[in-house]
Amino acid sequence: MNLSNRRIVLSAIYIAVALLYIARLFYIQVIDDSYKLDAENNSRRYEVRHPARGLIYDRNGKLIVANEVAYDLMVVTGQIKNLDTLKLLSIINVPKETFVTELKKAKKSSFRPYPIVKQISAETYAKLQEQLFNFQGFYVQTRTVRNYPYHCGALVLGYISEVNKKEIDANPYYEQGDYIGKIGIEKRYEPYLRGVKGGKYYQVDVKGRVKGSFEDGKYDKPVTLGKNITTTLDIELQKYGEELMRNKKGSIVALDPKTGEILALVSAPTFDPNIMVGRLVNENYKKLESDPLKPLYNRPIQGDRYPPGSTFKTLNALIGLQEGIITPNTMYGCQAGYYSGGLHVGCHNHYSPINLIESIKMSCNAYYCNVFRAILDAPKYKSVREGFLTWQSHIKSFGLGDKLGIDLPSERPGIVPRAEYYDKVYGKNRWKSLTLISLSIGQGEITMTPLQMANVAATIANKGYYYTPHVVKEIDDTVFDKSFIKKHQTKIAEKYYDIVQEGMYQVVQGEPYSGATAWFVALKDISICGKTGTAQNPHGDDHSIFMAFAPREDPKIAISVYVENAGFGATWAAPIASLMIEKYLKGTITNTWREKQILDKDFIH
Questions:
Q1: Which tens digits make up the pLDDT trace of 136-195?
Q2: Which residue among 84, 159, 262, 438 is least packed, with the fewest CB closer than 10 Å?
Q3: Are 317 and 402 in the same domain?
């Protein structure tokens, strides 16, 4: 290439580069308005407007999660001039070390607003407003924080807290200083409750004082309010359940069997959700997290290592009936328990032999050892394994061994053992019905959550079907999740449930001293069908268990109560369930002596 051509090529390159720069400058200065907003940061301020979070109501229209105004002191470090730190600290009452640390964080982005002091009080805000013009670069941003008027339901309602880096990285909607639902309904329904934040641009003078709207609000972004939610909870029942479980470990789950709507979801010990509001949130969370009683552990849906104990006998009875292994008139004897070779499964004293209904009424261990072995060893099956798989299939049709799908985070599935597990432990084809005998009485490898147990009670009440348990009933202007109105059918025919219902009826409504295990919790005007359970616990005293539904004629509540380390199911869990049933159906308690006994009982200290 000769010198003349080389000059032409270089000139063309220079001209092209110059044209690119000119085009880019034209786009920035004339076409793209966003760059105009980024310019002259000292004369403009963008204030984020956080929408009021959606309110939460109980099933009866009572406000259970409210909003109240909070104030954050914001700073734009690039606008700070001649800061009198000591004077500012004397007003906002924040330790100097804390303030300096936060200011360093804010300086990482000098023209981006940063919440240097969150949730200052209304009194402090009033004092600050009078002096704010002296602190160039600082301004106050209002937001709403939560208030829980009933001081209960912490784990089911949840709480909100500032977003962390992981949450910001996962969702570009959130920025540092934003709040997000952390657990419970607040987390599960966060996209509905939070709304959509907006913002407003202001023209400010050299001292950072607002002089008016920037360009008549041309660049402002509107706020979309959060949606209100109506829950399925009965907040009075929830509060009462938490009072009954004071100084106890365990749970209460109450639901409407006709709909799957959760009426109460009690986890004990618990805490007042209001301690998770304000500037001490992090400190209070650390205390809860380190508490050996685990108040952050949501036992109703996460406690999936609970053996169901004798409540499980109702399912073995139904499977035996469905598979034609037993009839209501099938009799088995009991000599203080079940014996086979050197094995002995103990039982309490009662008359013998007994039929199916009496076996539920008296909670006979020997009866169900016989039933369970008869199922697995039935001649119609080619092997014990085939009998076990049939049994397992029926159990899983009740929603056991899987998550039920409640609309709360962190649900766990419980355990329905698999044949492969026994193959691994005992060797393939080397385990027999006697090997698994603990399953007959709800011990061994079978576990379920208290939610699943309440759902079993609901399924028996419905004679063979259930709806997915859920805690939200309605969301404003939103089509409700149709999965919650889908009927789940078990593999047990409807006709067999009448027999098991009668047995459960006899547990509570049977004559005193007739062998009925919970006759003393019967209510005068309400027919309760229930089943006691006492689960062995290798780590301490046995767990007290009870599941029930009422009234028998038209079930309106199904319930499970699990009290850890409390002994017999009839002693503590059954009375708690009876009180909860009466509270829900009648609104008052007749046996105040029993109520006081429960309220005063302390299994922790």
A1: 889 898 888 899 999 999 999 999 998 999 999 999 999 888 899 999 999 999 999 999
A2: 84
A3: yes
Which of 24-28, 135-139, 368-372, 486-490 has the least mean pLDDT? 24-28
Alpha carbons 359 and 321: distance in angstroms, whole number: 14
- Considering the domain architecture, whether residues 537 and 590 belong to the same structural domain is answered as yes
**473 and 370 together in one domain:** yes
Mention every residue, 6+ apart, whose C-beta is less than 8 A from residue 86.
none
Cis peptide before 222 (omega within 30 of 0): no
Peptide bond into 292 cis (omega under 30): no
Domain membership flag for residue 414: yes
User: How far from 368 is each of 357, 372, 378, CA to CA, in Å?
Assistant: 12, 6, 15
Question: Crossing angle, helix 96-106 and helix 85-92, to 10 degrees?
Answer: 110
For residues 302 and 191, membership in a common domain is answered with no
Range of the domain at 172: 46-231
**H/E element holding 237?**
helix 235-244
Q: Are 125 and 56 in contact (CB under 8 A)?
A: no
Sheet strands (E) in 237-336: 250-256, 261-268
Q: What is the CATH number of the domain that holds 359?
A: 3.40.710.10
Locate tokens 């009876």: which residue?
Answer: 578
Q: What is the pLDDT of residues 409-422, one digit of tens each?
A: 999 999 999 999 99
329: CB partners within 8 A, 6+ apart? 355, 356
pLDDT exceeds 80 at position 34: no
Nearest-Å Rg of the Cα atoms of the chain is 32
Checking if the pLDDT of 585 tops 90, the result is yes
Instruction: Report the alpha-carbon distance of residue 444 to residue 116 in Å, rounded.
Output: 55
Q: For residue 97, what is the domain's CATH number? A: 3.90.1310.10
Q: Could you give the C-alpha distances from 214 to 79, 439, 580, in angstroms and in order?
A: 17, 72, 59
Q: Are residues 549 and 432 in the same domain?
A: yes
Are 250 and 201 in a shared domain? no
pLDDT in tens, 38-80: 444 556 777 788 899 999 999 999 999 999 988 999 998 888 8
- 551 upstream amide cis, omega within 30 of 0: yes
77-109 per-position pLDDT tens digit: 888 888 999 999 999 888 999 999 999 999 887
Distance CA 547, CA 533 (A): 8
Number of compact structural domains in the chain:
2
What's the pLDDT score for residue 35?
46
Asked, for residue 558, whether it belongs to a domain, the answer is yes
**8 Å CB contact between 302 and 334:** no
Give the residue-averaged pLDDT of 487-495: 97
Torsion of CA 390, 396, 397, 398, to 10 degrees: 130
Q: What one-letter code names the amino acid at 132?
A: L
- Identify the band that residue 207 occupies on the pLDDT scale cut at 50, 70 and 90: low
Q: Which of 214, 231, 248 is the last residue of a domain?
A: 231
Cis amide leading into 269 (omega within 30): yes
| Residue 1 within any structural domain of the chain | no
* Whether residues 97 and 182 fall in one domain: yes
Encoded tokens for 123: 């009194």
Burial class (CB in 10 A: 0-12, 13-18, 19+), 100: exposed
Cis peptide before 307 (omega within 30 of 0): no
Does residue 338 belong to any structural domain of this protein? yes
Show which of 202, 231, 260 is a domain's final residue.
231
